[in-house]
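G., the chain you wanted modeled:
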Amino acid sequence: MFKIGCVKIANPFILAPMSGKTNLPFRLIIKKMGAALVHTEMISSEGLIRGQKKTLEYLESDPKERPVAVQLFGTDPESMAKSAQIVEQKGLDIVDLNMGCPAKKILKNGAGAALMRNSQRVADIVSSVRKNTKAPITVKIRSGWSPTEENYLHIARIIEDCGADAITIHPRYTKQGFSGKADWQIIKNIKDAVNIPVIGSGDVTDVHDAISMKDLTGCDGVMIGRETLRNPWIFKQILQVQGTGEPFYPGLHSWHELIIEHFSLLEKYFGEKRASNQIRGILLCYSKGLPKRKELRSLISEIDGKTSFLSLINSYFEQVSGGTLHED
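Predicted structure as tokens:
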């Protein structure tokens, strides 16, 4: 266990924020699997303070997912502070400031990882948020813009000095996007340089990676992103390996139950139509761990409501009941 400000984090393993993915239904599923902290999708500070309906929806929460961190992006210190106040007023747990997103649409406005090229703006944003909210603050960064503009230690020290409670580092350069290999040594370097908790991110694709990152870098937390879309059980598996040494392997019955549960949560919070649209993309990710995935993918486009979803899924699992997955 470690703490981010006043918030206790029960174990080191954390769900990363992912745009279009880490909505409330998915966070509830991942929390149930054992994640100690979950993150919302990335939220525009400007959209939040303007009260945009879709943006406000990102703040919907459930006591079962707590603690939850809300990730904000923007470039204006005052707007970032105001949006952090909204998060705090909603009673959510942690404000996470994004200074690591490499998406072009974010960079072109000077937000996300572009902020690492402006250390004064980094200081102004973190200081402004710190002065205007009592909520714990985390900041996510990268190694720098490029190998010739590597400044992660300088930025990390600014973040700490300006009052943040933790730092998350994805050790790739902005120019890399998600290509190449994450340099975990950078996580260790930051951990050795600051006195606040450090969360590592990048290239955690299985249980071994998660445990190795923590052991090799000494980081306080390990953030897991894309792998959760293929294997939602990864948190449960990590904790079991640390406990008994034997990870849980989901069988077809577990996959069947999970997929139905996921649709039910989507329907509960977003309605049947949106649930039907979203489950298609979710099934594309989940199918990577299932037999006859081509057959399943070919049927996904036929989902147009709860009835067709249940018919398709139940029929699929009846057909693959003799598959080669581990038994429950």
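The two ends are 29 Å apart (CA to CA).

Shout if anything looks off.
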